[in-house]
Amino acid sequence: MRRPIVIAGGGIGGLSAALALARVGLRSIVLERRAEPAEAGAGIQLTPNAGKALAWLGISAAAVDAVSVHPERLDIRSDRSGRRLATMLLGASAAERFGAPYRTLHRADLQQLLLAAVRRIPDIDLRLGTELAAVQREADGASLATVSGGRPREIRTDILVAADGVRSTARQAIPGARDAVFTGRVAWRAVVPIAAAPAPSDSIGIWLGGSGHIVHYPVRGGRELNIVAIVREPPEARPADATNFLSHFSSWSPSAKAILAPPSAWTRSPIMTLDPNGAWTGGPVALLGDAAHTVPPYLAQGAAFAMEDAVTLATSLARRPDDLSAALEDYRTARFHRTRRLSAAATQAGRIYHMGRATSWTRNLALTIAGPLLLHRYDWIYRWQPPG
């Protein structure tokens, strides 16, 4: 490869891709339209497979642990009664079983860890405030039209990695690539001081109901609580009006409603999905993360799978430095079946989470019976190992 690989997007996926490429000796240019990358004020569940990807990228466990929490368990509760249906043990059990702990942290803290690592590596050229405007495929690579500070500029590259999210610009350069579609649900998110919320500081909580579901967990070393509530609403953007939003939970237990009471402000975003059966690669362009396979967030794997993509892409390119087309196809092949399985599993989880009153009793009974073995259901996700 004669020219640096260009990565569109400086989020978790794009920064992970740059670090992965650097580890195998490949230079990259990261284009990020924002003047300073900053993740939205929300948390992230960093499952064991994500932790192993981070370690492969060179992010130390100590650095991650300094800004995260190792929750001891995940409690699943019923909406109206508040009854605990099941508990999935995490903590030492998860770390021993999967070779890495289950962590929760703020997305901005994770991004800052990746950003600091990127800035230490000379082979990564991070260009902030630079937007990818158009992609022109060529016989020997791609010509990229970018805009920085109002000035147009052209960049030529052998490979473009599209890590620019669910509304990817670069994806339009791949024939057969699919567009994301709205799932019919939106996510309301907030972060509050842990002292203001009636929730434990050492565990994850999930509340299930027909009108939606609630997830909460500690972040920032246990000082804050991340809250996510998912409901069925139209996708159109509007002010985050908590009065209308909270009406979805009017019949829920007082304990559930108390979790939603402390936030004074919420952010709102539509939940999208992108069929992984579409094209991921085309000529010199490869999709990564949400640009390739957005899935509903019910299994907490969006960032984890983007990091897995990054590691797999870099190792595929390192194995076939003289045949880039074959290397990109190897990458897609290595990731496709796992990602398709995740998409199906996340969609099914959403249906289970939101069962109506008439059928939810079967779900609740199954969760109660399966409680001690719930962690084992995710072996296929959490046991992932970086390619050798």
What does this protein look like?
The protein is α/β, with parallel strands linked by helices and 388 residues long. The protein has 2 domains: 258 residues, FAD/NAD(P)-binding domain (3-Layer(bba) Sandwich); 92 residues, D-Amino Acid Oxidase, Chain A, domain 2 (2-Layer Sandwich), CATH 3.30.9. 33% of the residues lie in helices and 29% in strands. It contains 12 helices and 19 strands. The chain has a 7-stranded mixed β-sheet, with helices on both faces. Strand 15 and strand 16 form a beta hairpin. Helix 1 runs parallel beside helix 5, helix 1 packs parallel to helix 9 and helix 2 packs across helix 9. It is globular and about 60 Å long.
Please report the distance between the alpha carbons of the first and last residues.
22 Å
Strand order in the sheet with the most strands = 6-5-14-15-16-13-17
CATH superfamily of the largest domain: FAD/NAD(P)-binding domain
Give me the CATH architecture of the largest domain, please: 3-Layer(bba) Sandwich
Oligomer: single chain
User: Any idea what the radius of gyration is?
Assistant: 21 Å
- The geometry reads as globular
Question: Class of the largest domain, according to the CATH hierarchy?
Answer: Alpha Beta
How many domains comprise the coordinates?
2
DSSP strand content: 25-35%
Compute the number of helices: 12
| CATH topology heading of the largest domain | FAD/NAD(P)-binding domain
Summing up helix and strand content along with how strands pair, one would put the structural category as: alpha/beta
Poorly predicted parts: none
Question: Quick check: average pLDDT?
Answer: 93
Q: Helical proportion?
A: 25-40%
Strand tally, please?
Answer: 19
